[in-house]
Each structure stands twice: as structure tokens, then as C-alpha cells.
């Protein structure tokens, strides 16, 4: 889908962001922590995704279709979501295996898919970030061709974007800082103490 939206759509988006941020601020004021706020936003994104799309259009997305998971440059996630994704890796051997893949990805100049992609499927589907929940397409061939004009449901895009930007508005600057997914996960692994970030740079 082209990034061009009308002034009216831009206004709707801004209003949506403000409404989402105000709602999330209320949750935080009531004691919600960042993880529960993120999980709330993820549930909202899933509900938006489940809503019926335009009549006569059939989503091309299906289990095993992984074109968008391979467009690494376009998958940017926040620090807070990267921390959440890594939180499911509680086993030390799993952590080290993932860390090795992340470090290999970092060291490879060639284009790499998301490190969480395994045999065409997301290995952390339950905690996948908001940008992945927003992603959808009505034309898998356009995704495969890395087209910049993948046909999408504009309403879904705008509502999802309002959720994501509203979330970003209420997280701390550090939590909301975004980076390409593999890079963000490697930084999250350092924060989680899986390895010393200093050691990785020596
Ligand atoms: S986190 Fe999962 S859904 Fe998102 S890009 Fe990676 S493999 Fe794909």
C-alpha cells in the first residue's frame, strides 16, 4: 500500500492516536505496567485483524506464508516489544541457540529474514510484535516481489497504526525506541544478561 493518505485520513489517524494514548494513560495511572499495556494493544490489534475486510477481497495471508517476515528492513520493533519476545525463552540452551542466530545475523551483511522465523512460521507467534499483527495483504505475489504497493485494507492499516503510535506515545523514550527486529532482539538479549554487550564489541 502506498504511504500516501488523504488529509482526512491523516486527521482520523491523529485522532485515533490521541484516543488510544489517552486510554492507555488511564490504564497506566491505574497501575498497569508496560507489559500488560503492550499485551492489551496486541489483543486490540488482533481484534482489528479479525474484523471483516472489504467485501469481495480475500486475505492472502495464511500459515506458512512468510514473505513479510523476510522483509527485514521494514520490520522495526520497539525495545519493550523485543524484551517481551525474549521473555518466552526461559531455557538457557534455547537462549544460547537464539543468541547464536542473532549474532550470526548481525555479522552477515546479506539480507536476513527475521531470526524468529522457523520453517516458514513465527516461532513466537503469541508474543510477536504489533507491526507483525498489523501486516496483511490481499496479494501474496506483490509481497513476494517486495512491492511497495501491496494491496491492504486501509481501515485496518489506520486503526492498527493508531494503536501502535498510541502505544509508542505512552512508553518511555527508551522503551519505544525502535530498531530492525534482529538488531532489537540482540540488544534485548544484552539487557536480559544473556551476554555482555561490551564483550560482543571487543
Ligand atoms: S516476529 Fe514472527 S511474525 Fe514477526 S517478522 Fe518475525 S517471524 Fe515474522
The number of domains is 1
Integer-rounded radius of gyration: 18 Å
| Tally of individual helices | 10
Task: List each distinct ligand once.
Answer: iron/sulfur cluster
Please tally the β strands and state the result: 4
Shape: globular
The order of strands across the largest sheet is: 1-4
The low-confidence runs, each spanning 5 or more residues with pLDDT under 50, are none
Structural class: mainly alpha
* Largest sheet composition: 2 strands, antiparallel
Share of helix, binned = 40-55%
Distance between the termini: 42 Å
- What would you call the quaternary organization? single chain
Mean pLDDT: 91
Q: What is the strand content?
A: under 5%
Task: Output the helix-strand order.
Answer: HHEHHEEHHHHEHH
Pfam families: CxxCxxCC (PF03692)
Protein name: Zinc-or iron-chelating protein
Walkthrough of the structure:
This is Zinc-or iron-chelating protein. This protein has one domain. It is built from ten helices and four strands, in the order H-H-E-H-H-E-E-H-H-H-H-E-H-H. Helix 2 (34-50) runs antiparallel to helix 7 (154-170). The model has no long low-confidence stretch (mean pLDDT 91). With 202 residues, it is mainly alpha-helical. A hairpin with a 2-residue loop joins strand 2 (117-118) and strand 3 (121-122). Bound molecules: iron/sulfur cluster. Iron/sulfur cluster (SF4) binds next to loops.
Amino acid at each position: 500500500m502506498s504511504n500516501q493518505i488523504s488529509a482526512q485520513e491523516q486527521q482520523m489517524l491523529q485522532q485515533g492516536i490521541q484516543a488510544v494514548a489517552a486510554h492507555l494513560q488511564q490504564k497506566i495511572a491505574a497501575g498497569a505496567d508496560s507489559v500488560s499495556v503492550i499485551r492489551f494493544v496486541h489483543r486490540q490489534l488482533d481484534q482489528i485483524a479479525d474484523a471483516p475486510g472489504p467485501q469481495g477481497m480475500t486475505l492472502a495471508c495464511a500459515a506458512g506464508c512468510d514473505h513479510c517476515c523476510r522483509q527485514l528492513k521494514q520490520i522495526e520493533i520497539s525495545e519493550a516489544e523485543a524484551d517481551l519476545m525474549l521473555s518466552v525463552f526461559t531455557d538457557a540452551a534455547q537462549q544460547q541457540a537464539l543468541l547464536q542466530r542473532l549474532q550470526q545475523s548481525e555479522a552477515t551483511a546479506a539480507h536476513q529474514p527475521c531470526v524468529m522465523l522457523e520453517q516458514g512460521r513465527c516461532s513466537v507467534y503469541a508474543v510477536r510484535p504489533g507491526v507483525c499483527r498489523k501486516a496483511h495483504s490481499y496479494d501474496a505475489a506483490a509481497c513476494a516481489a517486495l512491492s511497495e504497493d501491496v494491496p491492504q485494507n486501509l481501515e485496518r492499516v489506520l486503526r492498527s497504526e493508531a494503536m501502535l503510535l498510541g502505544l509508542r506515545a505512552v512508553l518511555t523514550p527508551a522503551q519505544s525506541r525502535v530498531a530492525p527486529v534482529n538488531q532489537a532482539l540482540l540488544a534485548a538479549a544484552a539487557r536480559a544478561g544473556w551476554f555482555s554487550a561490551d564483550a560482543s564489541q571487543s
